[in-house]
Design goal:
The protein is of the alpha/beta class. Among the domains are: 182 residues, Rossmann fold; 126 residues, 2-Layer Sandwich (GMP Synthetase, Chain A, domain 3). Helix content is 33%, strand content 23%. It is built from 21 helices and 30 strands. Strands 12-11-8-6-7-14-15-23 form an eight-stranded mixed beta sheet, with helices on both faces. Strands 5-4-17-16-18-19-20 form a seven-stranded mixed beta sheet, with helices on both faces. Strands 21-22-24-25 form a four-stranded antiparallel beta sheet. The N terminus is likely disordered. The structure holds adenosine-5'-monophosphate-propyl ester.
C-alpha cells in the first residue's frame, strides 16, 4: 500500500460506462417515503451535532438524557455524554410496553425448512433468562463473552443478553477456525463461549462445537465455560464442569432481569477484522451513538415502515452487517425481520426467492457477490416466484458492478424498486455513503453520496481535496457509530485510521467523484493496479469483464510484469451455456479493451470453474496474485473451498503452455 500511496490517484483511468441511465425514485415511492426531500441533508449540514442529537432523542428512549452531544478529542470521540440507556430496553422492552409484544421480531427459517416465529415478548423473555444465565456463570458488567454460533435465534438472544447486563460480546463468524477463536478469545480475555453443536449448511449438519474444543485445547485459557445450544442433535463431547447445555440452563433461569441503564459510552461489542498484520483488530463499538446511527440508517436508507414491512438482511450475524442490520437496527425500530440459517442454493437455487415470496419480504439486503452468483444461476430462478412484495433492495460489502446492479434491478426488483448501494465498514458501525431511496437519483454502480450527518471527502496523496476524479476516501467529521478504538491498542487505532491524512479518518478505500458529485467506490487502494504508471482499479476491469455476455463473475489482479510493472490478469467464470475456449478468452480481453481503453485490456483472461473466496464471500485476490506470479501459495486457511486454487493454478499453467 505504501508504494501505491506514492502515486497520484488522479491518474485512475476509465469510468463506469456500462450503464449511463440514471434512476430517479418513482413518484409512487416518493409519496410514501420516510424521507422524500433534502430536508434531512439540509438540517445536518447546518448543525450536524444538533441533527444527531435530535435523532438520538427521537429514535431512542433514554433513562437519562445526555448533556453533551459530542466530545471530540481527535481521534477519540464520545457521543451523548452523560446520557444513559439500556440497549435491550430500546430493542425489546419499549416495544412490549407499547403493546407490541405479540408482534413477530423474527420469522426464522432453518435450512432444512423448520420455522419459528419469535415475538418481541418471547424474545424479551429469552433475553432476560439468558442474561440471568450469564450472571449465574459469574459474568459482570465490563466482562467479555465470545459467541460462535450458526444463524439460529439463540444467536441474537445471546448478544442481547450480554448487552442487557453490560457484558461486551465478541461474535466470531461460524466459518472461522479454531485458531481464530483462540486469537479472539485471548485478545478479549473472554470468560464464556456461547456456541451450538452445529448448524445446517448445504443440506447437512456442520459441526461447530468440536472447533471450540480444539481451540480450548491449545489456548484461550480465560474461557471458564462453554454454553452449547443443541441445534442438530450431534451429541458433541461435553467436558464436565466446563461445558453446559443452553436448554438446561434456560429451564432453570428466572425471567426477572430488569434493564439496567448503561452509560452512553458503555462498550457494547468487539468485532474483529483482519488488518495488514497477522493480529486481528478488535473494533470497539459502544452504546448510544451506535444505536442512534444504526436505527437512523435502518429507518431512512431502507425506508422502513415497522407496522407493515417484512425486512430481510440476508447476511450472517458473524459480520458487522448482521450486527447492525439484523439485530440492533431492526429491533430498535421494532420491525419484523426474516432470518435464514442456511445457504441460498439449498435445496435449490431459488431458495431466497421462495423465502421472499412466502414471507412477502419488502426489503432485501445482500452483497454484490451473491447477486453475481444469482446471475450465474440464471434469471429463471427468481422468475419462478412472485417478488412483487419487494419495495427496496440493498447491497453492501464491495463495489457493485453496473451489470450486477442492472440485473438486480430488473430480475429481483422488477424494474420498480429503488436500489441502495450502502458503503460502510466494520469500523464505521453503520451506513455512511448511500442513496436515500425516496430522495436520491441513483446511478448503477455508484453508492451516491454520504448520508445526512456524515461528511466524506476525496483527497489526493497530499491530502488536498479532489473536486472531480480519483482519490482516497476520507471522513472529515466524527459520526455517532464510529469505532471508539481498537481493543487494548489505542496507538494502533490512531496509526491505522487517523495518521495518513491529518485530521481525517481513512480506512483504505479509493473512490472517484464524478461531475455530479457522485462517489464511485473503487475498492481498497491496495487492490488498485499500476500498469505502465497508470492506475487501474481491479473493480473497473472486473466490471468490464462482467459486462461481456458470456461472463458471470470475474476477479482481476495485477501480476508482476517486467515491462509494465504490473499486468492485468483476469479470472472469469462463464455463464451457463458457454464453453471455455481460447477464442472466447480473446474476445473477452478485447471487450475490456473496447470498454476501458487498451491500457486496461488484460494480458490474460483465464477461464476458471470457480474463484477462491473466503467463507464470507470475499474473493481472495492475494491467492490469485500468487497464481499469476507463479509463487507458492500463501495462507489458504480462510478459503471456503481450498480445492479451488489448485484447479485455477492448473488452468493458469495451461494458459502459459498455450
Ligand atoms: O472496501 C470497502 C468494502 O468493504 C470494506 C469494509 O469491509 P467490512 O469491514 O468487512 O464491512 C463490510 C460490510 C459493511 C470497505 O472498506 N465495501 C463495503 N461496502 C461497500 C464496499 N465497497 C464498495 N461499495 C460498497 N457499498
Amino acid at each position: 500500500m505504501a508504494q501505491q500511496r506514492e502515486n497520484d490517484m488522479s491518474e485512475t483511468i476509465g469510468v463506469f460506462e456500462i450503464e449511463d441511465r440514471t434512476f430517479p425514485p418513482p413518484d409512487s415511492f416518493v409519496s410514501q417515503a420516510n424521507a422524500s426531500d433534502r430536508a434531512l441533508y439540509e438540517e445536518a449540514e447546518q448543525d450536524y451535532e444538533a441533527f444527531w442529537a435530535r435523532q438520538a432523542r427521537e429514535l431512542l428512549t433514554w433513562s437519562k438524557d445526555f448533556d453533551t452531544t459530542l466530545e471530540w478529542d481527535l481521534p477519540f470521540a464520545k457521543w451523548f455524554v452523560g446520557g444513559e440507556l439500556n440497549i435491550t430496553a430500546n430493542c425489546l422492552d419499549r416495544h412490549v410496553d407499547a403493546g407490541k409484544g405479540d408482534k413477530v421480531a423474527y420469522h426464522w427459517e432453518g435450512e432444512p425448512g423448520d420455522t419459528r416465529a419469535i415475538t418481541y415478548a418471547e424474545l424479551l423473555t429469552d433475553v432476560k433468562k439468558f442474561a440471568n444465565v450469564l450472571k449465574s456463570l459469574g459474568l459482570e458488567k465490563g466482562d467479555r463473552a465470545a459467541i460462535y454460533m450458526p444463524m439460529i435465534p439463540e444467536l441474537p438472544v445471546a448478544m442481547l443478553a450480554c448487552a442487557r447486563i453490560g457484558v461486551a460480546h465478541s461474535v466470531i463468524f461460524g466459518g472461522f477456525s479454531a485458531e481464530a477463536i483462540v486469537d479472539r478469545c485471548e485478545d478479549a480475555e473472554a470468560r464464556v463461549i456461547v456456541t451450538a453443536d452445529g448448524g445446517y449448511r448445504k443440506g447437512a449438519a456442520a459441526p461447530l462445537k468440536p472447533t471450540v474444543d480444539e481451540a480450548l485445547k491449545t489456548g484461550a485459557s480465560s474461557v471458564e465455560h462453554v454454553v452449547v445450544v443443541n441445534r442438530c442433535d450431534l451429541g458433541p463431547d461435553m467436558t464436565s464442569d466446563r461445558d453446559l447445555w443452553w436448554h438446561e440452563l434456560m429451564a432453570g433461569a428466572s425471567d426477572d432481569c430488569p434493564a439496567e441503564p448503561m452509560d452512553a459510552e458503555q462498550l457494547l461489542y468487539l468485532l474483529y477484522t483482519s488488518g495488514t498484520t497477522a493480529k486481528p483488530k478488535g473494533i470497539m463499538h459502544t452504546t448510544g451513538g451506535y444505536l442512534t446511527q444504526v436505527a437512523f440508517t435502518h429507518k431512512y436508507v431502507f425506508d422502513l415502515k415497522p407496522d407493515t414491512d417484512i425486512y430481510w438482511c440476508a447476511a450472517d450475524i458473524g459480520w458487522v452487517t448482521g450486527h447492525s442490520y439484523i439485530v440492533y437496527g431492526p429491533l430498535a425500530n421494532g420491525c419484523t425481520s426474516v432470518m435464514y440459517e442456511g445457504t441460498p442454493d439449498t435445496p435449490a437455487q431459488d431458495r431466497l426467492w421462495d423465502i421472499v415470496e412466502r414471507y412477502e419480504v419488502t426489503q432485501l439486503y445482500t452483497a454484490p457477490t451473491a447477486i453475481r452468483m444469482f446471475m450465474k444461476w440464471g434469471a429463471q430462478e427468481p422468475a419462478k416466484h412472485d417478488l412483487s412484495s419487494l419495495r427496496v433492495l440493498g447491497t453492501v460489502g464491495e463495489p457493485i458492478n453496473p451489470e450486477a446492479w442492472m440485473w438486480y434491478h430488473e430480475h429481483i426488483g422488477g424494474g420498480r424498486t429503488p436500489i441502495v448501494d450502502t458503503w460502510w465498514q466494520t469500523e464505521t458501525g453503520g451506513h455512511m455513503i448511500s442513496p436515500l431511496p425516496g430522495v436520491t437519483t441513483t446511478k448503477p454502480g455508484s453508492a451516491c453520496r454520504p448520508i445526512p450527518g456524515v461528511f466524506a471527502e476525496l483527497v489526493d496523496d497530499e491530502g488536498n481535496p479532489v473536486e472531480v476524479g480519483g482519490g482516497y476516501l476520507t471522513i472529515t467529521r466524527p459520526w455517532p457509530s464510529m469505532l471508539r478504538g481498537i481493543w487494548g491498542d489505542p496507538d494502533r487505532y490512531r496509526d491505522t485510521y487517523w495518521s495518513r491524512f491529518e485530521g481525517r479518518y481513512f480506512a483504505g478505500d479509493g473512490a472517484k467523484l464524478d461531475e455530479d458529485g457522485y462517489l464511485w467506490l473503487l475498492g481498497r487502494v491496495d487492490d488498485v493496479m499500476n500498469i505502465s504508471g497508470h492506475r487501474i482499479s481491479t473493480t473497473e476491469v472486473e466490471s468490464a469483464l462482467v459486462d461481456h455476455s458470456a461472463v458471470a463473475e470475474a476477479a482481476v489482479v495485477g501480476g508482476i510484469d517486467e515491462i509494465t510493472g504490473q499486468a492485468i490478469i483476469g479470472y472469469v467464470i462463464l455463464r451457463g451455456g458457454n464453453e471455455p475456449s481460447q477464442e472466447l478468452g480473446d474476445e473477452i480481453r478485447e471487450h475490456v479493451g473496447v470498454k476501458l481503453g487498451k491500457i486496461a485490456r488484460p494480458k490474460a483472461v483465464i477461464i476458471v470453474p470457480d474463484l477462491p473466496k473466503t467463507r464470507s464471500g470475499k474473493i481472495m485476490r492475494r491467492l490469485l496474485r500468487d497464481v499469476a506470479d507463479g509463487r507458492e501459495l500463501g495462507d489458504t486457511t480462510t478459503l471456503a473451498d481450498p480445492g479451488v486454487v489448485a484447479e485455477i493454478a492448473n488452468r493458469a499453467a495451461e494458459e502459459d503452455d498455450d
